[in-house]
Design brief:
The structure is a single chain. The chain starts with 7 loop residues before the first strand and ends with a helix. It is built from 17 helices and 21 strands. β13 and β14 form a beta hairpin. The protein is of the alpha/beta class. The chain is about 35% helix and about 20% strand. α15 crosses α16. The strands form six sheets. Strands 17-18-16-15-19-20-21 form a seven-stranded mixed β-sheet, with helices on both faces. The protein has two domains: about 220 residues, 2-Layer Sandwich (Nucleotidyltransferase, domain 5), CATH 3.30.420; about 220 residues, Nucleotidyltransferase, domain 5 (2-Layer Sandwich), CATH 3.30.420. Pfam families: FGGY_C, FGGY_N.
């Protein structure tokens, strides 16, 4: 282990789909401490007919955090996947980046499959076929004035150091990366007539790419899920992970991508992890359903905290109704509680009315989807998972963590809450030469972070609940 010199100060920017935060880390004598110094909302805006990220406002928050942090040794960014900005020939942003929830790609996949079949597209890239993926967004984007496409974490870094790169983990969310060669898929780019030169050079996570006011700008695992997995406490071969925030990403680490028809039909995705492994996972709607329901209740004059919503869900009667959390009607902003009621009416189930009943339905439906994915993933990989690591903001939802352990029938370890920011910090340390490997960093995290253990209870009830979900039978 290194790290016996002067204190190293590291600034990690972690952008989620609903909020962002700046975490200041200090590393001295082999020990890492960290604290949040700035938190801010990430509110999309409607502009020129599209839902967009308010990038100038977000950069304003970055500069505020840099002032609060003072001099640092390194800076790095991680964000959600798939979205990007367009730069003109002078390196200026052409327009505010379009949000993945914008409706422009609603019917694009059908057009894409007339160019390249779903089977061939999955075999070439290993990416879960989702309308939000970068490839489908680019099909609906005017590239005539664009000299460069930069994914969101690379776009933030570019604003500081003016060095354009494309980090591999974020590129692997695009539906255009050949995971086996770790380069752009010639077959995909050629089929869709996307010029390869529009993308910046690919770099590995943990690469120093430039400087800003004396601080090294580091390209870490730009996709927040991969930064979160980088900080996962040391695990065995038979562990799965759940990175839980606005989105839920359920997966495991593998040595090679799974590109089979069975994997494609199960809607699994292969992404490049920070340690060179494949993170085999499924994208599932996450706490977005609770977040958007809370916004609706606020619009109705009922301002509940997340803790209050969880407490009401705890008191509600269990297993009264389920929804398919990935159903398209739940993807767009709006009155999610009423959409849940409509879904339950249409499927002949109990119709939740109170805040607690709606929230209970969401939490249990998420746990059911995790169970289905858990079983599916075991079947495809041949693994038998013995533990689950829950990472990210979802760790704070104790009811969801317990329901997940119950549904899967295996112990769940929840923590660290700030896994994404910690993974970001670890990869900065690796780039600075302060630690030798990700394994060393994970061992360090295990010493400083407390995880909460959830032991499964009444898993047989969840087996009955699965039959209820599938057939409408009573539990």
């Amino acid at each position: 282990m290194k790290g016996r010199g002067a204190v190293k100060k590291l600034l990690a920017f972690d952008f989620g789909a609903s909020s962002g935060r700046a975490i200041l880390g200090e590393y001295e004598n082999g020990a890492l401490t960290y604290r949040e110094i700035h938190r801010f909302e990430n509110n999309p805006i409607e502009e020129n007919g599209h839902l967009r990220w308010n990038f100038p406002e977000l950069m304003g928050e970055v500069y505020r955090a840099l002032e609060l942090a003072g001099p640092v040794d390194s800076i790095a960014f991680d964000t959600w996947g798939v979205d990007f900005g367009l730069l003109d020939e002078n390196g200026n942003l052409l327009e505010k980046p379009v949000h993945y929830r914008d409706s422009r790609t609603q019917h694009t996949m059908e057009k894409a499959f007339s160019v390249m079949s779903a089977q061939d597209l999955y075999a070439a890239t290993g990416s879960q076929l989702m309308a939000i993926n970068t490839l489908f967004q680019l099909m609906e984007t005017d590239l005539s004035k664009a000299k460069q496409v930069l994914f969101m974490p690379d776009l933030f870094a570019y604003q500081l150091c003016k060095k354009a790169v494309c980090e591999q983990s974020i590129a692997s969310t695009s539906q255009m990366l050949d995971l086996q060669k770790k380069t752009w898929s010639e077959a995909v780019l050629s089929a869709f007539e996307i010029p390869k030169e529009i993308f910046a050079p690919l770099v590995q996570s943990g690469t120093v790419i430039g400087e800003y006011q004396g601080a090294k700008v580091v390209s870490v695992a730009g996709h927040d899920t991969q930064s979160a997995v980088a900080a996962m406490p040391a695990q065995g071969e038979n562990s799965a992970f759940l990175s839980c925030g606005t989105w839920s990403l359920f997966g495991c680490e593998l040595d090679a991508p799974v590109l089979t028809a069975q994997s494609r039909e199960a809607e699994m995705s292969n992404e490049l992890g920070a340690n060179g492994k494949i993170n085999y996972l499924k994208n599932i709607t996450g706490l977005w359903l609770i977040q958007e329901s809370r916004r609706q209740w606020q619009r109705e004059g009922k301002a509940y905290s997340f803790g209050e919503i969880a407490a009401m869900a705890e008191q509600a009667e269990p297993m009264k109704c389920f929804i398919d959390v990935n159903a398209p009607q739940f993807a767009a902003p709006g009155d999610v509680p009423e959409r849940i009621r409509e879904y339950c009416r249409e499927t002949g189930q109990f119709v939740p009315q109170s805040v607690g009943e709606v929230a209970r339905c969401i939490y249990e439906s998420l746990a059911w989807q995790y169970r289905a994915t858990f079983l599916e993933m075991q079947n495809i990989t041949g693994k038998r998972f013995e533990t689950l690591h829950i990472l990210g903001g979802g760790c704070q939802a104790a009811l969801l963590c317990q329901l997940t352990a119950d549904a899967l029938g295996v112990p769940a370890q929840a923590g660290p809450v700030e896994a994404t920011a910690l993974g970001n910090l670890l990869l900065q340390l690796k780039a600075l030469g302060e630690i030798d490997s990700l394994a060393e960093g994970r061992a360090m995290i295990q010493k400083i972070e407390t995880v909460t253990q959830y032991v499964p209870k009444d898993s047989e009830r969840w087996a009955r609940a699965e039959r209820f979900f599938r057939k409408g039978e009573s539990t």
